[in-house]
Structures are given as C-alpha cells and as structure tokens.
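ARCHIVE CARD
Drawer: 12
Card no.: 0347
Subject: one protein chain, sequence and derived structure
Cross-reference: see card 0346
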Amino acid sequence: MNARATVFYMYVRLAVPALILTGIIFGLYQYTTASPLAPAPDIGPTEVTIDPTISTLTIDDARARILGLWRSTSDEKTIHDFRADGTLNSASTWILFSNDTDSPIRVPLEEGTVYLGINAETATEEFAKIVAVTDTALDIIYLSDGRAEHFTRAE
C-alpha cells in the first residue's frame, strides 16, 4: 500500500467512529432536552356549539334553514350555496337524510339526527352529521374523519 492510501485509511478508521459517536451524543442530547409534555400547537377552533333545538330538528326544518349562502369560519374562501333544487355551488348536489328515510350510506345512524350528503363532480361523496342549523349558523361533523366545521350565513 502506498503512503497516501495508508493515510486515507487511517483517517477513515478514525473519522467513522467519531461521526457515529457524535451522532449518538447529539441524539441523546435531543432526547433528554425534549419536553414530553409540550403543548399541542394551536390549530384553531374545533369545538362545535350544540343547538338545544337539534333534538326537534326534522328534515323539513333543516331544509328550510340550510338554503342559501354559508361561509366557513375556518376557511373564508369556502362558501356553500345550498339551492332549493338540490344543487350546491352549481356543480354539486346535496341531500338531507336520517335513519327514518332512505339513507345513501350503510352505517348506523343516530335516532333523531339529520345528515347531509354532498356529491361533488370533482370529488367523492361526503357525508356529515348536522349538529346545529339556525338562521345564522351551521355546524356539521364529517363522518369520514370526524372533522367539525362551522359556517355562518353569508349575504
């Protein structure tokens, strides 16, 4: 072996263990200084205020209240225009259903609860439980992921 190869081999034999040891020390430092009880990041409001009249909400009441423009409070660009002919934003359709009506989904539905189904041309169907619908607020929970969304009446 020539002198250059011998020097290179020595450096490699010393550098590799030194790098591994440095990585272990750094990892241990990160592990011991990380707080396991760090507060969760604030992702905005996710609580839904439940309307006490929801227990008496019928599909006809929900249909009368849901018609019109609604703006999401979590994303102001999201506006839903529920029209009386069953169209939503002119490219989608919407329906209301409950356990007393023909359901488009085959999962157990809560007694006395009204559900919203949205069929968009560019996406799959979405289903949501209507938690509250008043003249000024619409609160839903998506059945697919449990995500709550709050809308206010847009004019």
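Annotation on reverse: DSSP finds two helices and eight strands in the chain. The two ends are 84 Å apart (CA to CA).
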